[in-house]
């Protein structure tokens, strides 16, 4: 942008010099391109792969379900609170061999509800806890 005419040397010419702005932007771009891969891949971890295991359901396995509202069920019977679940699990934890606990959690259930069941299994001394899920859709 220029003001005034080029005939008069005393007139002020105001021009926006964008060269320093472009230089700073290029330097920032180079810094981001160099540092982003280092930040995202700084800790080497091996992520789990999706897999489907066909498990045999044995009659001695315990199925604990959690519905969308957070209610806990021992097979088909509702358990009134996590303390009652711990007592039931303690009774079956003494069996030899110890049964597995399969948790069926509703998709809409809170993590807290599922966590209460896992904590109950831990307090009762259950060694094997697994989750029942739907197999992935083939597409």
From TrEMBL:
<keyword id="KW-0813">Transport</keyword>
<dbReference type="GO" id="GO:0022857">
    <property type="term" value="F:transmembrane transporter activity"/>
</dbReference>
<keyword id="KW-0653">Protein transport</keyword>
<keyword id="KW-1133">Transmembrane helix</keyword>
<dbReference type="InterPro" id="IPR003400">
    <property type="entry name" value="ExbD"/>
</dbReference>
<comment type="similarity">
    <text>Belongs to the ExbD/TolR family.</text>
</comment>
<dbReference type="Pfam" id="PF02472">
    <property type="entry name" value="ExbD"/>
</dbReference>
<feature type="transmembrane region" description="Helical">
    <location>
        <begin position="24"/>
        <end position="45"/>
    </location>
</feature>
<dbReference type="GO" id="GO:0015031">
    <property type="term" value="P:protein transport"/>
</dbReference>
<dbReference type="GO" id="GO:0005886">
    <property type="term" value="C:plasma membrane"/>
</dbReference>
<keyword id="KW-0812">Transmembrane</keyword>
<protein>
    <submittedName>
        <fullName>Biopolymer transport protein ExbD/TolR</fullName>
    </submittedName>
</protein>
<keyword id="KW-0472">Membrane</keyword>
<keyword id="KW-1003">Cell membrane</keyword>
């Amino acid at each position: 942008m220029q003001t005034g005419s080029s005939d008069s040397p005393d007139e002020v010419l105001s021009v926006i010099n964008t060269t320093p702005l472009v230089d700073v932007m290029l330097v920032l771009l180079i810094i981001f391109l160099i540092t982003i891969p280092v930040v995202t891949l700084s800790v080497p971890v091996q992520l789990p792969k999706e897999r489907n295991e066909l498990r045999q359901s044995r009659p001695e396995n315990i199925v604990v379900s959690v519905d969308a509202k957070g209610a806990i069920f021992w097979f088909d019977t509702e358990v009134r609170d996590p303390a009652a679940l711990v007592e039931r699990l303690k009774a079956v934890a003494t069996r030899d061999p110890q049964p597995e606990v399969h948790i069926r959690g509703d998709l809409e259930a809170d993590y807290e509800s599922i966590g209460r069941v896992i904590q109950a299994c831990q307090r009762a001394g259950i060694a094997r806890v697994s989750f029942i899920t739907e197999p992935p859709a083939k597409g």
